[in-house]
Amino acid sequence: FDRKFQANVTRERSYSKQGQMLTEDENIIEVPLTVQYKISDLQAFVLNVEDPEASLQHATDSAVRHVVGSTAMDQVLTEGREAMAGEVKERLQRFLDNYGTGIIVTQVNLQSAAAPREVQEAFDDVIRAREDEQRAQNQAQQYSNQIIPEARGESQRQIEQANAYREEVIAEATGNASRFDQLLVEYQKAPEVTRQRLYIEAVEDVMTASTKIMIDVEGGNNMLYLPLDKIMEQNGSGLGGASSTQDLRALAEQLSPYMPSANNNSNSIDRSRVPTNTRGVR
User: Fold this and answer.
1) Is the pTM of this model over 0.70?
2) What is the pLDDT of residue 164?
3) Residues 4, 60: contact at Cβ < 8 Å?
4) At the N or C end, where does the chain have fewer CB atoms within 10 A?
């Protein structure tokens, strides 16, 4: 034998490395890692490769750069390190097997990556900006989740109100049409009576909401002013309060001088019945 080599194949060895690498999104970061390995085949370890540990270092560097270069910076810095460590171990073991180094990788630990010291401040600004962006997106999503159900509820409420209004209008129009048909039948039976009744009902509707009446005097430019509210107050009751027969009769007696005479076809007022203290309004 020219040379004798002995090694403890059960002892676990380690190799540490740290270097600057470029991520998939073109950011430079410092990636420290530790590789733990054992000698699985002493003969291959001694004879196949001149310097197996140097081959391990080169293979580690190649595997890490490949994995980091295909991963975004956020994944390298946060929760993606564990998955990256598994991928580096698998790729590194494949390289070592191809070289025939007789080395088996037991563990790859990727430690916390960071930006180079020269750009750490700018790197921190980018991180804060991304955090602000994510926070704004979360707030916008929260507002969207809040406002959309409210808008849908308001939309449904307006639709229901519109449907109710439509039904109300249709029912009212149907009722008016039915009343008109009934009125037409009565008008065909007695036109004059029906016209008079419609006129009286219209005047009643107008007078109910009026507190003062102006009466035109035929043959002159004066108008007679009837303050109904004052007359009702003098009778001891407000407007609309003359509920007794005596009050209604007293009010009719006070208004009778201003009404056209039943025997007068010209609808003029009998001025001889008007009290002398009544003042005309021009």
Assistant:
1) no
2) 94
3) no
4) N
